[in-house]
Design goal:
The chain has about 90 residues and is an all-alpha fold. The chain has two helices and no strands. Helix 1 crosses helix 2.
C-alpha cells in the first residue's frame, strides 16, 4: 500500500515538473519573440535612417556637381585613378 502511495506521489511530482517545464518553455518562447520583434524594429529604424542619410549625401553630391562641374570632373578623375592604381597594385601583388 505504501509503495502505491509512493508511486502515485512520484507520478504526481513528475506531472507537476512537466507542467512547470511547459510553462517555462512558453515564457521563453514569448520572451524570444519579443526580442526578435525589438530587433526587427531597431533594424528597420536603422535602415530607414541610413536610407535618409544616403539620399542626403546623393543630393549634396548632385548639387556640388551642378555648382562645380569642373571641380567634380577633376575629383572624379582623381578618385578613379587612385582606385585603379590601388586595385592594380593589389591584384599585381597576388
Amino acid at each position: 500500500m505504501e509503495e502505491v502511495k509512493k508511486e502515485k506521489s512520484l507520478i504526481d511530482e513528475i506531472k507537476l515538473y512537466e507542467k512547470k517545464a511547459k510553462e517555462i518553455e512558453q515564457r521563453a518562447k514569448e520572451k524570444y519573440m519579443e526580442q526578435v520583434s525589438d530587433i526587427k524594429q531597431k533594424l528597420g529604424k536603422a535602415s530607414e535612417e541610413a536610407s535618409i542619410r544616403a539620399k542626403e549625401v546623393i543630393d549634396n553630391v548632385g548639387n556640388y556637381v551642378k555648382e562645380n562641374p569642373q571641380k567634380a570632373a577633376v575629383i572624379g578623375f582623381g578618385v578613379g585613378l587612385g582606385l585603379g592604381l590601388a586595385l592594380g597594385w593589389f591584384f599585381k601583388k597576388k
